[in-house]
Design brief:
about 40% helix; sensory transduction; five-stranded mixed beta sheet; cilium; alpha/beta; Glutaredoxin; single chain; phosphoprotein; 8 helices
Length: about 230
């Protein structure tokens, strides 16, 4: 597609080491990156020249085997980053939020976007499994930044009588203000010692987590594996 070709031309120009190029190559690359720039708006051939096919000089330049493979990999990675950013709708969080009272709890659940998953841990200090679950959710929050992870002490919810020590830790999952899942005494689902990977696997069994986000594609280091 013409748009992709022209975008590649522009990226190729920006990636070139200007000092190492001859004047003729610099001019070719300049025209490749913006082929319509050197023509006036009144030129009747502007549209045709903009849509022209590449000359042999252009083709050979952007297909230089010795230098083009590295540039092509960088270009592919940049395209993947751009695509991922366009597809990553909604706010980002990345941390485990501490809710101070019942009002904040309601706001966290009811005032988020309908597409945002909200996971709330009801806990108390000194209850077995609560600390481990908080640590696990902190790790998952950094991995799943589009999910809102929260924690609140049972005594701060305004409904402490409903969250006795026997049902803690409790994990509530909401979306669009609606309760999707309610896991009481969730630590019983795991071994005595459990970690983020265990909680992640458990939530994935119920389809409560989105697909893991693409890792950072870095600065184009060609030693990194390609993302297909």
């Amino acid at each position: 597609p013409k748009g992709v070709i022209n975008d590649w031309r522009k990226f190729k120009l920006e990636s070139e080491d200007r000092d190492s190029l001859s004047l003729s190559k610099k001019e070719i690359l300049r025209q490749m990156s913006s082929p319509h720039r050197c023509y006036s708006k009144d030129d009747k051939d502007t549209r045709e020249r903009f849509c022209r096919k590449m000359s042999m000089q252009e083709y050979e330049l952007i297909h230089d085997e010795q230098e083009d493979e590295s540039c092509l990999q960088k270009y592919r990675k940049r395209c993947m980053q751009d695509m991922h950013q366009r597809l990553s709708f909604g706010p980002k969080y990345g941390y485990l939020c501490e809710l101070q009272n019942g009002e904040q709890f309601l706001e966290a659940v009811e005032k988020e976007r309908k597409t945002t998953t909200v996971i709330v841990h009801i806990y108390e200090d000194g209850i077995k499994g609560c600390d481990a679950l908080n640590n696990s959710l902190t790790c998952l929050a950094a991995e799943y930044t589009t999910v809102k992870f929260c924690k609140i002490k049972a005594s701060n919810t305004g409904a402490g009588d409903r969250f006795s020590n026997e049902v803690l830790p409790t994990l509530l999952v909401y979306k669009g203000g609606e309760l999707l899942s309610n896991f009481i005494n969730i630590s019983e689902q795991f071994n005595e010692e459990f970690f983020a990977v265990d909680v992640e696997a458990f939530l994935n069994e119920y389809g409560l987590l989105p697909e893991r986000e693409l890792p950072s594609l870095g600065n184009g280091n060609t030693d990194e594996p390609d993302v297909e």
